[in-house]
């Protein structure tokens, strides 16, 4: 868990440095900290809601034990977006004034977070005997789930082979980060473009990745909650991309 926290801290530090350096603004450190705190609270709240019956109903005190893992990225993202929008209203800033830059660097921080997930063992993939399969150690989330399901004896010293979906997503996020950096520099005058590209791009990589996940997933009909949110995020991102064509040099609205 210490490695997980270190990866998250490193990702946040790198993103903060990039945003401050590229924006040239020294007044946003408070905003970045606000978004980090709200994001963690939202990510934890989403995890608790998703796993209330199985993990927290009998012992609600465990809700605050973030040190034991349990964060849902989409919960954190939605919460951070809401907090950022409220900040924009309070400061009378356009939503896209900083959102393009922040959305450009988010995949970098998220990639570090997924690497942390790999070291902790959460967010693991489906059972696999392929060459890329990994075995997590005793007491890891995969080990616990496989013992609970009866697929693994309690005296096993490691989990059965699973896909390292954490590393798959981290690699995809780094590619997305590189593409967003290119787009941000190439079309910086199109306000909202990078924001839309991030939303649509992450939705496109997360939706199919959900089919490879092996950890317990809450569902909405035939789709996981993450896939359902991905559809909405893709549509919102597409709107930002289309609308960005009308925002070149436009200074007359809050978006």
Topology (SSEs and partners):
Elements: H1 2-23, H2 29-50, H3 52-56, H4 73-91, H5 96-120, H6 141-148, H7 165-186, H8 193-209, E1 219-220, E2 223-224, H9 225-244
Antiparallel strand pairs: 1-2
List descriptors.
255 residues; mainly alpha; 63% helix
What would you say this structure looks like, in words?
There is one protein chain. 63% of the residues lie in helices and 2% in strands. The chain has helices at 2-23, 29-50, 52-56, 73-91, 96-120, 141-148, 165-186, 193-209, 225-244, and strands spanning 219-220, 223-224. A hairpin with a 2-residue loop joins strand 1 (219-220) and strand 2. Strands 1-2 form a two-stranded antiparallel ribbon. The N and C termini lie far apart (39 Å). The chain has one domain (2-126, 163-244). It has 255 residues and is mainly alpha-helical.
Report the major sheet: 2 strands, antiparallel
Low-pLDDT stretches: none
Whole-angstrom Rg: 19 Å
Mean pLDDT: 89
Number of domains: 1
Written as H for each helix and E for each strand, in order along the chain, the element string is: HHHHHHHHEEH
State the helix count: 9
**What is the end-to-end distance?**
39 Å
> For the largest beta sheet, what order do the strands appear in spatially?
1-2
Instruction: Assign a percent range to the helix content.
Output: 55-70%
Percent of residues in beta strands? under 5%
- Structural class given helices, strands, pairing? mainly alpha
Number of DSSP-assigned strands: 2
Shape: globular
